[in-house]
Amino acid sequence: MATLNVKNLPDALYRKLKARAKRQRRSVAQEVTVLLEQALEPAATLSILELRGLGKELWRDMDATSHVANERAGWR
Hints:
Elements: H1 11-23, H2 28-40, H3 64-74
Helix pairs in contact: 1-2
């Protein structure tokens, strides 16, 4: 496993990182790892069908991509 050293980290930023790690019950190193993973992992794509409420039943048999394309075409 690799080791990462960060030089010239501002004291205020380190204090915030340390406080965040404490709130999450993690070490500073663990918190940095979690933050880097979150920042570098691609965001999960969500389907409108996964939403609760918000009229998802209206979208069940509809292709959302086509719908959006048609809506955008109507804006021109």
